[in-house]
Amino acid sequence: MGHGKETPRQKMIGMMYLVLTALLALNVSSDILNAFVLVDEGLVKTTTSFVAKNETSYSIFDAEMEKTPDKVRPFRDKAYRVKDMADQLAFDLQELKVEIVRYCDGANAPSLSPVDWTIGEKRERKSTFNVNGDEVKAKDNMDKPAEIMITKNGGAELKKKIEAFREELLSMTTDPSVQQAIQQSLNTGDMTNMSGTTISWEVGHFENIPLIAVVTLLSKMQSDVRNAEADIVKNLLDQIGATDTKVNKMEAIVQARTSYILRGGEYEARILLAAYDSLQKPEIMIGPYTRTESGYEMVGEGRSLPYDERGRAMFRTTPSSAGTYNLTGLLRMAGPDGMVSYPFNSEYQVGESSTVISATNMNVLYVGLDNPISILMAGVPAERISASMTNGTITRSGSGWVAKPASPNSNSVITASANIEGRTITGSPQTYRVRMVPAPIARVGGRSSGQIDKNVLMGQQGVNAEMDNFLFDLRFVVTQFNVMVNTAQGERNEPSTSAAFTQAQKNLINGTQRGQMVIFTNIKARGPAGNIVDLSDINFRIN
User: How many other C-beta atoms lie within 10 A of the C-beta of residue 537?
Assistant: First the structure.
């Protein structure tokens, strides 16, 4: 964040980071944690699409090597060097996921399932595990992931690997746009948090972040690695003119910026042919299709997609309700024997806007106090959230909010909203009870009644006002009290205008006999807001 102009992909990543930061200040609900599982699944699908696209590019290099080996070999060698590094870095990120999940859920974590990975040009097979987010037990654990990534320097080591991969890619091209894209997708620079403090890349990504969010972030990094790999390999193909030639392997691919959006947000997907003849633009039709003896045909007329200035067909839609939507159609282009159709089939999920408003200390707001409030709207940057409150006021305070209710005779309702792509989304209002701050309890030596030894009582400094079972850190100071003792001459009272015993009060207590009552009356205390409250009497019988 704060690294210059961002691509839409980087804005999505930044949005994720802000959401994770907002999660730190509240008890995260299971619904929010499960939302990260959906995001992670979408990222894994996106990464799989990149891998398929990249494999097609490498097959083009292999085909071109057979035609003009002397011309192609230097660029092919660079491309497979990129493949080696990208495969290894993606594998290392997967191993980090497994290590963190095992550290939190145990060596036999039920979310882990064995899988073989193929690494590099030599197709070396390595064993690791897939992570099923639904089966992760300690989704909300914020401590153990940070131990591995920060305390044990796992994040610092990962940063070095990403930087080494980035520098290797940058050395292979002089194209400014490609270099900029790689710099942005593999950025490991320091970050600025919402309070304006500069923090390291490792702290920004892994400190106080729930386990399931850390897994999602690592999946995002795998997607970034494959995206950077695709950028540089395409650039190398351009340098040998391979993209200007016909190829013998083609595949229709749908690339979505994200597979999970909020209701009211915009879904955007890029649909392209992984290997194609750049002299012609394929026709892309959206709608249901069917397979025939001669290939594929649309069912009905379908919808034709227009091209942008870069020759890409873009699909956009704004869903009106939550649910799972299919994106299907045909990509048509001219082949040696006539028109050839390539089918594509993808899906995206639209979720309801999930809003979390919570009182940080309890579910009651107190008159006269700055009640800390945390507000989260899933998928919305914290700085774009607005809030309103009945029976009081609510204002921003650092990364959170402060609520100040006005009257204990009425509840307060807090409502959060955000402007998403020109449309206002309002979360479900949350109702809170409003109460006055309870009065403290007067005590001497931690006691407020019962029998007491005279020497123990004489050893105390005075009267204290203590809050019982109150989560706010409030301090009341006793401003006055009386000590009353019934003597043979009658009732005697000695006053104090502070919290401490006066010498006269000590003398009065010292003159008591076993069985006599010592009563502390007229006890008053000043609260943090300057208000004076009356406290209950203290009754002691001398042993």
Answer: 15
